[in-house]
Amino acid sequence: MYRYQDTEINVVQGDITKVKVEAIVNAANNTLLGGGGVDGAIHRAGGRIILEQCKKIGGCPTGEARITVGGNLPCKYVIHTVGPIYKDGKSGEEELLYNAYYNSLKLAKEYNLDSVAFPSISTGAYGYPIEKAVKVAVKAVLDFIEEEDFPRQVKFVLFSERDFSIYDNYLKEVLKEN
Ligand code: AR6
Predict the structure, then answer these.
(1) Is the model's pLDDT at 176 over the cut of 80?
(2) Tell me, what's the pLDDT at 7?
């Protein structure tokens, strides 16, 4: 477990659809109509209500975030964000990935959802190298905490053991474990 200011930060390996927090974040695409990876898992486990609400929302630009209920998931809400497709690292990917994390937390704050779980956005189908992505993810989250003193808890949920180690090692480097 890590701490930054008043926020508890955890890195866990597992399936984000099983995590009990107020909001989980979905790595969606611009249509918000579902897909593979974590997006597919969230829609499958959450049920049709999520897709129905996503249809009404009508899409989401890259780097922004939208919210639906959690349906059958243990979380109350799902925050859908869209990370960038990685091209060469020089096409604005870093800023867009930063915005995806930051804007997800902004929405969590608006809804007063003070425990939030993130998957590793863009590092699956969208091809963002995880060693680069972790730095952007952590910076966006720490910046938000510093500026807003919110949320109370952040969980990074990594699907593979390798991704978990990359995140855990990086957080160890940046924050002191307690
Ligand atoms: N829990 C936590 N992490 C997961 C889970 C899960 N249940 N399932 C997969 N991951 P990806 P992206 C990890 O491809 O790169 C979708 O089709 C996965 O191992 O889900 O942002 C969307 O509709 C990887 O580390 O998201 C978009 O079209 C990470 O989640 C596109 O993929 C992200 O991989 C978005 O691509």
Answers:
(1) no
(2) 98
Domain span at 25: 2-174
With a Cβ cut-off of 6 Å, ligand 1 is lined by 15-17, 27-29, 35-39, 41, 83, 119-126, 157, 159-160, 163
Q: How many domains does the chain have?
A: 1
Indicate whether 178 pLDDT > 90.
no
CATH number at residue 110: 3.40.220.10
Q: In the chain, how long is the greatest CA-to-CA distance?
A: 43
pTM of the shown model: 0.98
Q: Is 39 a catalytic residue?
A: yes
Q: Which helix (H) or strand (E) holds 132?
A: helix 130-148
